[in-house]
Amino acid sequence: MTIEVKNIVKRFGSFAALDNVDLKVGKGELLALLGPSGSGKTTLLRIIAGLDWPDAGEVTIDGEDALGHGASERHVGFVFQHYALFRHMTVFENVAFGLRVQPRAVRKDEATIRARVKELLDLVQLDWLANRYPSQLSGGQRQRIALARALAIEPRILLLDEPFGALDAKVRKELRQWLRSLHNEIHVTSIFVTHDQEEALEVANRVVVMDKGRIEQIGSPGEVYDNPATAFVHGFIGESIVLPVEVSGGSVRLGDRPLNIAADGAASGASKLFVRRHDMQIGPAGTGSLEGAVRHVRSFGPIQRAEVALTGGEGKTVIEIDAPRDRELQAGEIIGLQPRRYRIFAAQD
Amino acid sequence: MSTQTTFVTPATRLQAYSSTADLAISPPSGRDASTRARSAVASKDLRSEPGPIRFIIIALAISFLTIFVVLPLLVVFASAFSKGITAYFAALAEPEALSAIRLTLLVAAISVGLNLVFGVIAAWAIAKFEFPGKTFLITLIDLPFSVSPVISGLVFVLLFGAQGYWGTWLQAHNVQILFAVPGIALATIFVTFPFVARSLIPLMQEQGTQEEEAAISLGASGLQTFFRVTLPNIKWGLLYGVLLCNARAMGEFGAVSVVSGHIRGETNTMPLLVEILYNEYQFVASFAIASLLAMLALITLVVKTVLEQRLDEGQTPRDELRDEP
């Protein structure tokens, strides 16, 4: 099922939670809305679900206007960050809820409902918990039950609000892969909200990066990581080294030190140079555009992470770089650095 | 939503509510924190207190309770049975006594029933929606607690009395409100209004709206959401409020006394009859009725304790089980 969002505006008082947002979601997609808190991602999700209403704009689901219908008529599965399971009902009744509240004309008989619930509990691999109450489950189990409950109504689309946000790191990782494979199995158009870039890049087919109520970039996980469209996306996704540079007529300077890199068409003026930590080429002192003293080295796995105090530039700039361990760095050593891949964005006030 | 909610026992519920909600008449902020700190210190000191002092303090508390609570209660029952069991039941079988019991039950049923509905609506509005004038509404709900019951009764006299605003109109249409059941019920409703709303607001605020949102997104209608999700979640708090409301409705004296007119066998509730009989030196009869009210109090106390336990169970955030690795 497709979802189309057009020119959505939503204000809370004078705060613009969503500022002219456009988005198209294709059939069977698994889309991530990624952004820091306050970026409007949850508000957008709630508007699609019908739990919030925009001040202006359109939402269509399958080409049909959704804003004319309340949440209960939209057939949208919603999974809450804190599960929102009905605490006075057993797991079984929680999952059955959506089937039991259907209008009498379309309501299934008890045997069909029981079979369907059983099927869903099998799908989330928790059929053995059917008679427990939510308070007797772990966080991961609760979230899987919440998902089964949302799927019970055979939703046209599935919306997940920070589905793994309240879980600890290890469980989060497991559930991610599980959600990925579940989506491969049932193929319902899904949108999930997260502030965790790793989660978004790992699970989604397409990532929508949001900041301050606007969409900064839409692209595949590879695109948003390798070709960030804006300074915000570069800074938010992946770890970046950010250096304040001056661009003038195609040449780039850090303080009074000219850098041997092309401006790549960046406009003249104060700018920011973004380099991924692992995209700094390390050489002996005197090679490369930058030079610095290694202050501290930590090695783990295949990489060593070094803190380097740059010489030149404005005062003492300290950056962290990741280098392969083919050449062990020593604290105190002076090294030359050359950005291998980089992006230059105009500095915003 | 926080799973680590501050633990609020029902006993401190009303007080905690009035100091946490942004009430215009709220007591100085920080009072909660300071009392908690003080009691923590006191209990620590108590444990380190030498035996005799501990004994004296406990003895003082118990004797105080005995003199001011237990003794009067015993006197009520002793006086009621002072002429024997036959006299006791004879006094209760008097037509006047029966009429008072009937009237009290009727008024309690009306006022508890209506306040149940009003209270749930008011608590729902306050806990689940944001709207201008919310603080004012919260203050208004508390008004009956801060006004003397006699004044509450007088208000109805001013409205419905012969010289009141609507008195002439009511007389012309032959509608009897004052000195009749409607007046007594109105006064009782007014006085007991806050109980249900106040016991529900903190509970509903704590529970938030997520379960309702979940229900709606699963296709439930408004009514289905209320009866299948909201009501089961608040049932113990609701019962708690109803219980207190009922106890007050049956025991109310001041406001009812002003509007009742004391027509014997017609508009006397049990508390009013107790006073009348006492003034007529019919001590056995007076205390017999009083003993019924005292029993109501005792039953209320027991049920209240049970309900508080249920509420605490429902509220204590159980430790989330660990996910298996």
Automatic annotation (TrEMBL), chain A:
<dbReference type="Pfam" id="PF12857">
    <property type="entry name" value="TOBE_3"/>
</dbReference>
<keyword id="KW-0764">Sulfate transport</keyword>
<dbReference type="GO" id="GO:0015419">
    <property type="term" value="F:ABC-type sulfate transporter activity"/>
</dbReference>
<dbReference type="InterPro" id="IPR008995">
    <property type="entry name" value="Mo/tungstate-bd_C_term_dom"/>
</dbReference>
<protein>
    <submittedName>
        <fullName>Sulfate ABC transporter ATP-binding protein</fullName>
    </submittedName>
</protein>
<dbReference type="InterPro" id="IPR005666">
    <property type="entry name" value="Sulph_transpt1"/>
</dbReference>
<dbReference type="InterPro" id="IPR003439">
    <property type="entry name" value="ABC_transporter-like_ATP-bd"/>
</dbReference>
<dbReference type="Pfam" id="PF00005">
    <property type="entry name" value="ABC_tran"/>
</dbReference>
<comment type="similarity">
    <text>Belongs to the ABC transporter superfamily.</text>
</comment>
<feature type="domain" description="ABC transporter">
    <location>
        <begin position="3"/>
        <end position="237"/>
    </location>
</feature>
<dbReference type="InterPro" id="IPR017871">
    <property type="entry name" value="ABC_transporter-like_CS"/>
</dbReference>
<dbReference type="GO" id="GO:0005524">
    <property type="term" value="F:ATP binding"/>
</dbReference>
<keyword id="KW-1278">Translocase</keyword>
<keyword id="KW-0067">ATP-binding</keyword>
<keyword id="KW-0813">Transport</keyword>
<keyword id="KW-0547">Nucleotide-binding</keyword>
<dbReference type="GO" id="GO:0016887">
    <property type="term" value="F:ATP hydrolysis activity"/>
</dbReference>
<dbReference type="InterPro" id="IPR027417">
    <property type="entry name" value="P-loop_NTPase"/>
</dbReference>
<comment type="function">
    <text>Involved in beta-(1--&gt;2)glucan export. Transmembrane domains (TMD) form a pore in the inner membrane and the ATP-binding domain (NBD) is responsible for energy generation.</text>
</comment>
<dbReference type="InterPro" id="IPR050093">
    <property type="entry name" value="ABC_SmlMolc_Importer"/>
</dbReference>
<keyword id="KW-0472">Membrane</keyword>
<dbReference type="GO" id="GO:0043190">
    <property type="term" value="C:ATP-binding cassette (ABC) transporter complex"/>
</dbReference>
<keyword id="KW-1003">Cell membrane</keyword>
<dbReference type="InterPro" id="IPR003593">
    <property type="entry name" value="AAA+_ATPase"/>
</dbReference>
<dbReference type="InterPro" id="IPR024765">
    <property type="entry name" value="TOBE-like"/>
</dbReference>
